[in-house]
Amino acid sequence: MFPIRDHNPSGRTPYVTYVLIAVNIAVFLAYWYTLPSDRALARFYELWGLVPFDFTQRGQIHGFVTSMFLHGGWMHLLGNMLFLWIFGDNLEDEMGHLPYLLFYLLSGIAAAFLQVASDPYSPVPMVGASGAIAGVMGAYLLLFPRARVDVFFFFIVFFRVFPVPAWIMLGIWFALQVASGVMIRSDDGGVAHWAHAGGFAAGLVLAFPLWLIRGGPAFWGRTHGRPPHPEATYPVSRSRIPSVRRMK
């Protein structure tokens, strides 16, 4: 189950979101197709990813920023960019371009700190924009809890797209990150669940002043938790499978 779009159009062009997506893709292509071997790729991640051991024992801090622009493969990259595409434009619309960029970077740094705190001596590099994007999702939940998000659900042979309120989709996602962080070590699962949870929480905290400026509970009272503008609508295609009457 994953989101494919929301019904929350932005009022201005999200230049920063576009640039972040472009930079992430460009950086990925620059090393994914130029490094000569898996060993060289692993060494690259060790140098530019965030290695908790290198921070706690050697004081290396550059990975808190550089790791946000690295990914471990095409699916990792495309999944992150999809989430940023869906939720980033609305937050940029509310915050403004430069404050949104600062918010994004601070969320990613906060996410990385929580991951390091969860396993400070890990030698495994952490890479990915997931922590920063989780911050975007946390802020989105605070500002637009009842915005509709279209979710693609697939179970064995059954699949369907249906809209759900953002608080359900994002709340379930956050709960899964916390539960996975408790039960699975990042070294074993390959996913930095605490970075996701930390970024999400950081996004809520960092967006809280904006929510208060908008009126806090009064803002929710005016919008009922929905976008403060008309929702986007999408055409629904009818099934081309002919119906068959049941035989008596």
Topology:
Elements: E1 2-6, H1 15-32, H2 38-48, H3 52-58, H4 63-66, H5 74-95, H6 97-118, H7 130-143, E2 148-155, E3 158-165, H8 166-183, H9 186-189, H10 193-213, H11 217-223
Antiparallel strand pairs: 1-2, 2-3
Helix pairs in contact: 1-5, 5-6, 5-7, 6-7, 6-10, 7-8, 7-10, 8-10
In brief:
This protein is 60% helix and 8% strand.
Overall description:
The protein has 248 residues and is mainly alpha-helical. 60% of the residues lie in helices and 8% in strands. The protein is built from eleven helices and three strands, in the order βαααααααββαααα. The protein has helices spanning 15-32, 38-48, 52-58, 63-66, 74-95, 97-118, 130-143, 166-183, 186-189, 193-213, 217-223; strands at 2-6, 148-155, 158-165. Strands 1-2-3 form a three-stranded antiparallel sheet. Helix 7 packs across helix 8. The longest helix is centred in the middle third of the chain and has 22 residues, at 74-95. The two termini are 38 Å apart. 37% of the residues are buried. Residues 237-244 have low confidence and may be disordered.
Rg (CA only): 20 Å
Strand order of the largest sheet: 1-2-3
The number of E-state strands comes to: 3
Q: Major beta sheet, specifics?
A: 3 strands, antiparallel
- Tally of alpha and pi helices: 11
Strand content: 5-15%
Q: Low-confidence spans: pLDDT under 50, at least 5 residues?
A: 237-244
Cα shape: globular
Helix content: 55-70%
Structural class: mainly alpha
The ordered H/E elements are EHHHHHHHEEHHHH
Mean pLDDT: 88
Euclidean distance between termini CA atoms = 38 Å
